[in-house]
Here is the input.
Amino acid sequence: MFKVRSKYLLLIAAAVWLIAGSQVMRMGIEVMAAGAAPLWLLVIGIPATFVAFHAMFSKLVAKHAARIHGYGEEKMHVLRFFDVKGYIIMAVMMGGGIALRSFGVVPGWFVAFFYTGLGTALALAGIGFVRQYLHREDVAPVRCPVTGHAR
Here is the structure.
């Protein structure tokens, strides 16, 4: 039940990361639009957050894509696009973010730049999964559009 060819797990992962990234980015932009952060902080903070998370997410895309490619053409459960560790990390990040915002632990200026940079990195990782899906063995390795490194 709920099994798909393993190569489609890459598209499922892409959809999850793109949706998550766009929603996180939207939250950051909404706070930014409310004027919660000075412009200089956004100009520095958004790119810094993006670069830090893009480096981490690029490695995760490569790791998960290699694992999914290793399944071959076999049909897998739709939730196998992550491993157990990936689901734990996702739950901790989401739960932590929700808790920090809900209890007012982080100020609006932090949410504005952090969520915008994080969401952008997540969305780009989603695009990385699409690129991995389109990747064929007979073409050059998939390269990160930001850093140019092969994945």
